[in-house]
Amino acid sequence: MLGGAIGLERELRDREAGLRTHMLVSMGAALFTIVSAYGFHEFLVNGGNLVRTDPTRIAAQVVSGVGFLGAGAIIRQGFSIRGLTTAATLWVVAAIGMAAGAGYYSAATITTAVALVSLGPLRVAAYKIVRLRRGEVGQVLIQLPTGQSPAGVVDAIERTGGRIESMEVTQEADRRNVNLFVELRPPHRSPDLVVAVADVDGVLEVRWSD
Q1: What residue ranges define each of the domains in the chain, with the CATH number in brackets?
Q2: Per residue in 120-132, pLDDT tens?
């Protein structure tokens, strides 16, 4: 149930590993821990010989084994990497399963609550803090009449605190499309940039997208 709660959050966000995967990882880790601690009791009692065992040996392999599942959830798309958070949640639910299998229900419950807060409210708070410090990064789509230079648009963006990372100009019928990737430095915001660009003579349309 605890592993499924984290998996449900991943499922609702349409991530690589969802409810069933997290439940199975957590349940498997719990079972491995139980088997490691209690599964060989009869063998040790009735084996006839003195056998020294380490009850943590099997459970310890869960940590490295889950690493393979986490690696499968990580996807590289160009210069960006997706799935790191999902891989981390798989690792966490394995730890939660091990804690539950060992009988540490309070630790497993607290860890689940902290993980859900980290994936939800803390994610939103971190995003807002980063936006305040780094500013906004987005794409500006501008339409100009054929033959008009985008120099006025570039000046307007720079006056409103924008830094152009890349620019692409294409021609379509009687219009010139200008596609710019812009980083806005605080305290400037995207609505201010859109208004400034719209006021440039000749601009037919301007749109901002994150």
Answers
A1: 2-128 (no CATH), 135-209 (3.30.70.260)
A2: 888 888 877 776 7
